[in-house]
Specification:
single chain, 188 residues, mainly alpha, 6 helices, 2 strands, globular
């Protein structure tokens, strides 16, 4: 039997990839932990996709895979970033461009209401919005790391920003067309 506990984190720290330890509450662990949470939420969303939503399910899975790349980059101290591999453990601008293509494809299929979108049109779209908010939280932590000089490059910021946009676009694509969901924004 493989044991999944090491007891090394009992002191309140966690290991970084390629060495080093940080407190479990460190901004770096908050960032990649939020991406982990987003991946789990995306997994629920993917499980809600029906047979007619195979392309959406495949795009969700691709986003999950890519978020693990961003998380690997964030789990690495900047001084060890030269050990990362583009597209495997480090985000790239090509990955950002690929997200933009998918965002445009989904947004080309929907008509947004003039008000803010209230999540919950259906279970799938609501779950995608849960994932989107976890990605946005990760983005806030990542930008704080950037301001503190703790990122090797800013590409991961670009990637995570677009990843949340893609989650939004997929949620709107999966959502129901129900104007009543947006009426509450008009109350005086």
């Amino acid at each position: 039997m493989v044991k999944i506990y090491t007891r090394k984190g009992d002191d309140g720290t966690t290991s970084l990839w390629y060495g080093g330890r940080v407190p479990k509450h460190h901004g770096r662990t908050e960032a990649y932990g939020s991406l982990d949470e987003a991946c789990a939420a995306l997994g629920v969303a993917r499980s809600l996709c029906g047979p007619s939503q195979a392309e959406l399910a495949a795009d969700i899975l691709r986003l999950q895979d890519d978020l693990f790349i961003a998380a690997a980059e964030l789990a690495t101290a900047p001084e060890a970033s030269d050990r990362l591999e583009d597209g495997i453990s480090r985000t790239t601008e090509q990955m950002v461009a690929a997200l933009e293509e998918r965002i445009d494809r989904y947004m080309g299929e929907v008509e947004l209401p003039p008000q803010f979108v209230i999540p919950g049109g259906n279970q799938l779209s609501a779950q995608l919005d849960v994932a989107r908010t976890a990605i946005r939280r990760a983005e806030r932590h990542i930008t704080a790391l950037g301001e503190a000089g703790e990122l090797a490059t800013e590409t991961v910021i670009h990637y995570v920003n677009r990843a949340s946009d893609l989650a939004y676009a997929m949620a709107r694509f999966a959502d129901v067309d129900d104007p009543a969901l947006f009426e509450g924004r008009r109350k005086a």
